[in-house]
Design goal:
Shape: elongated
Largest sheet: 3 strands, antiparallel
Number of strands: 7
Order of helices and strands: EHEEEEEE
Structural class: mainly beta
Number of domains: 1
Strand content: 25-35%
Helix content: 10-25%
Oligomer: single chain
Number of helices: 1
């Protein structure tokens, strides 16, 4: 089993790449050897600041623009520039 952690500039770039690499089909369904595709939530670049008493937002959090995707597949795939190195663990399969 192969696990890939990927980073894309846009969701459409991710979708196009995953289709091109045979991870998902045109209807965005997993292909036969793909066990899982996980679309991770936006990651926080800068924490927001909040009023301790009221919980009101003082400063909104800032999120990275990147689209992060984790793949579990039987296939060996070269994702090139999209693969995250080192393979950080924002998400893990048990």
């Amino acid at each position: 089993m192969n696990i890939y952690k990927l980073k894309f500039e846009t969701k459409q770039q991710a979708i196009d790449t995953l289709i091109d690499k045979g991870v998902i089909d045109e209807e965005l369904n997993n292909t036969n050897k793909t066990h899982s595709v996980v679309w991770l939530p936006k990651q926080i670049e800068t924490e927001g600041k909040y009023d301790e008493e009221t919980g009101d937002v003082i400063t909104e959090p800032i999120f990275y623009d990147d689209v992060l995707v984790d793949i579990m597949t039987e296939d060996t795939i070269d994702f090139g520039e999209f693969e995250i190195q080192p393979n950080n663990h924002l998400h893990n399969w048990m």
